TrEMBL record:
Pfam families: Rieske. It comes from Lysinibacter cavernae. Residues 4-100 form the Rieske domain. InterPro entries: Rieske_2Fe-2S (IPR017941), Rieske_2Fe-2S_sf (IPR036922). The keyword Metal-binding applies. Gene3D superfamilies: Rieske [2Fe-2S] iron-sulphur domain. PROSITE patterns: RIESKE. This is 3-phenylpropionate/trans-cinnamate dioxygenase ferredoxin subunit. GO terms for molecular function: 2 iron, 2 sulfur cluster binding; dioxygenase activity; metal ion binding; monooxygenase activity; oxidoreductase activity, acting on paired donors, with incorporation or reduction of molecular oxygen.
Length: 110
């Protein structure tokens, strides 16, 4: 497992996404309004747009271009025009730092 430090939890602004590229994989790292940290694929499945430039609302990240919102927990689109999910990455928080392995995605059911 190749965990890579992304940033500290304190450096991550609340209700905003931050784009990181790990091993060539674009990932949007988000701290939601509850303070929970999420990591999802940064590319909208509808239009190849960077999701990290979008809007965090509740537990979703909305694509700024066409309005599809993706669940930060499951990666599933919550509305059209997107209908394919984005990957959700496992994160680890150690001593206040966020680590992600871009080769490990969460297994999401239903």
């Amino acid at each position: 497992m190749a965990l890579t430090r992304v940033c500290s939890v304190d450096e991550l602004p609340m209700n905003q996404a931050q784009r990181v590229v790990l091993e060539g994989v674009p990932i949007a790292v988000v701290k939601d309004s509850a303070g929970d940290v999420h990591a999802i694929g940064d590319t909208c499945t509808h239009g190849e747009i960077s999701l990290s430039e979008g809007f965090v609302e509740g537990d979703t990240l909305e694509c700024w271009a066409h309005g599809s919102a993706f669940s930060l927990k499951s990666g599933k689109p919550m509305n059209l025009p997107a209908y394919e999910p984005v990957p959700v990455y496992e994160i680890q928080i150690q001593d206040g730092d966020i680590f992600i392995d871009p080769t490990v995605t969460k297994e999401i059911t239903a």
